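Mods, move this if it's the wrong board.
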Amino acid sequence: MYKIIGADGREYGPVTADQLRQWIREGRANGQTNVQVEGETTWKPLSSVPELSADAANLGAPPMTPATGAQAPSLPTTKTCGMAVAGLVMGILSLIQCCSFIFGILGVTFSSIGLSQIKKQPAELMGKGLAIAGLITSIAGLAINIVLIIVYKAAILAALAGCR
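Not the wrong board. Structure tokens:
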């Protein structure tokens, strides 16, 4: 097992020799990439590791960044689903009584779209908890508004009946 220091200065690994060879073939590591072999405490250039130096030498050096002389392995990136965030914000706003019915409808809509997007792209998008929280707060806001509308109508009808 090996660890490497990427061009961004971050440590990657532990990874197997096969994974490291793949990174070399993909141009994400080269002979000048700093490597730490499992069980050792020192970092050394990949070209000085006997079992990997031939792999690094055969492919030539990939483009390097000036910071550390090595190219960082690209890791999968995830981002938070914007619709999930919007759904949560609308759900919170739906609990406030000004225009809350509109915010509740928007919150349910955005949260549902967010959940759908996250389900379709689970490796790229995160935020399922945000979308669920948005859905719950939006539905709660809508329920509160419906109850308040019924109470207001009953109060108005009772006041009108008392005036006769």
